[in-house]
Design goal:
The chain has one domain: Rossmann fold, CATH 3.40.50. The protein has 11 helices and 7 strands. A 7-stranded mixed sheet has the order 3-2-1-4-5-7-6, sandwiched between helices. Strand 1, helix 4 and strand 2 form a beta-alpha-beta unit. The protein starts with a helix and ends with a strand. This is Methyltransferase domain-containing protein. InterPro entries: Methyltransf_25, SAM-dependent_MTases_sf. One of its GO terms (molecular function) is methyltransferase activity. Keywords: Methyltransferase, Transferase.
């Protein structure tokens, strides 16, 4: 995985949410959570696995809505932050945080109703292997996002501390087919890259987001979207 040592550092885990989801980053957090909730649908009593759960911002949200969920991550420091969130939210009994390797998931076939990963595939050195494992342990749904190679994200990708893997849509379709999945739906968003929103105050982010969404609703905007959400079925 790209940047594995950077990602697992204690100081990164402690500052992760503040650096990424304060200022204009709050808008990103809201949009990503909405994308997950729309894709996963009713959650009561569903058995869910989150790959690369990080500090648990999705994990806790889904547990609060009735899911029984396992959050898997490579970073012990990130998992500890997730456990704190779960205890604070009163949902620790509905979450198991587990340190593990997404390329060798420690679960039997068809174990979960839904398996999903957000902010994961841009770090993946072997995306086909990861997606196949996600498919193996899911009996219904696999959901994930990618950063796109024909987008404004290209302009600042080289500045990131661990870089990003950017995907073409044809490549994602091949990965989905290769894993034995069927694409049920896809959505494409954010003409302006995440890094731009994080640098501006939240009050300005909303104004830029209005323009971003207007462009994104056009055929050109769809092609230039920096983020794609992929909803697939086993």
């Amino acid at each position: 995985m790209k940047g594995a040592e950077w990602y697992q550092a204690d100081e990164i885990a402690q500052e992760y949410d503040v650096k990424r989801f304060s200022r204009g980053g709050r808008l990103i957090d809201r949009r990503e959570k909405r994308a997950v909730l729309e894709a996963l649908g009713p959650l009561e009593d569903r058995n869910v696995l989150e790959i690369a759960c990080g500090t648990g911002r999705f994990t806790v949200m889904l547990a609060e809505r009735g899911a029984d969920i396992v959050g898997l991550d490579i970073s012990s420091a990130m998992l500890e932050e997730g456990r704190k969130k779960a205890r604070s939210a009163g949902v620790a009994d509905h979450i198991e945080f587990l340190r593990g390797d997404a390329a060798r998931l420690p679960f039997p076939d068809d174990h979960f109703d839904t398996v999903f990963a957000m902010r994961f595939f841009h770090l993946a050195d072997t995306p086909a292997k990861f997606l196949s494992e996600m498919c193996r342990v899911s009996k219904d749904q696999v959901f994930f996002d990618t950063f796109n190679d024909r987008s404004t994200r290209v302009l600042y990708n080289w500045l990131l501390p661990m870089g990003s893997r950017l995907y073409g849509r044809d490549e994602v379709h091949r990965l989905v087919d290769g894993a034995g999945l069927t694409l049920a739906d896809s959505k494409h968003d954010f003409v302006l890259p995440y890094g731009f929103y994080r640098k501006i105050p939240n009050r300005l982010a909303d104004a830029f987001r209005t323009v971003d969404t207007a462009i994104g609703d056009t055929p050109l905007g769809t092609q230039l979207a920096s983020v794609s959400y992929w909803d697939t079925r086993v």
